[in-house]
Amino acid sequence: MAAWNLYRHRNPDGSSKDWAVRSNSDGSITTRWGKTASCLPSVSNRSGVRQFDIEKQKQAKGYVLVGAVDIDVNGNVTFPGKSLPATQPQTPDPEPMPTPPVETLYWTIECRAKQVVRVELGIEVRRLIGVIQALPEGHATPELEWNGWQQWIDTTLNAETFELSGQIKSVQGVLPWLFLLALKAKGFKGVDIDIATETARDLSVDLKAEQDVLVFFATDLDSIRDTAEVLGLLKPRLNLAATMSDKDDCWF
Fold this sequence. Notes:
Helices cover 31% and strands 23% of the residues. It has two domains: 4-78; 104-230. With 252 residues, it is of the alpha+beta class. The protein starts with a strand and ends in a 7-residue tail after the last helix. A hairpin with a 5-residue loop joins strand 5 and strand 6.
C-alpha cells in the first residue's frame, strides 16, 4: 500500500507543481515537493501537526489530490499498479464543494531563496516579532497564544530552505495575520508567502480590501491602524493640527 498522498497545483501558464505527504510511525509528518516530475527532491519533516489538517491547508490553496503513490528515499515517484509516469496522471475534475463559513485562515510559506535572502528573512522575522512584543499590552496579548511565533523563530534561525504552514483562529487575535502580511509585503525574492480563507480566497496585503477578514477578527481598520502603521502595512496619517502648531504665526 502506498504511503504518500500526492497533490498537484496547476498554474495559469500550464505549468504545475506537486506536493506529497505521509504520516510516520513516530507521529511526525514528512512532506516532499517540487515541479511536476518523476522526482520530488525537496523534503521536510514536521511534528505537532496532523496529516488531515495539512492536506486541508493545501486543498485550500488549490492543490488537487492526484492519488496514492510510492516515493523512495531519493524522491522518485511511482504509481502502484500503473504504467503512466507521475507527470501524466489522468485525474477527473474535482466536484464543486459548498462554500463553508470562514472559521480559520490558512498560511503557507515556501522558502527557496539564496542564503543571503534567507538570513535577511530571519532578521526581519525577529525584528517584527520584537515590534509586536513592544506594543501596548492590550494589543500584544491575544486571547489564545499562536504557536506560529516560535515556529518562525526556530525555522529561520537555521537559515536553510524550508516549507512551513499553519492556521490562525479568530480567538488568536489579529496580530499573527498582520505579522504574516508584513512579511509578505517585503517581497523577499524566492520566498512565497500565501494566506487564504477556507474558501481558498487569497488575501492581499491591502488591509482596506480585506474588510471581511477584519470582521473575522472582530476589529476594524481604525482599531488596528496604529499597529498596522508600525508594521509598515499602512502609511502614517498626517496630523495637520500638530504640523500647524509647530509653525510660527505668519499672519501680518
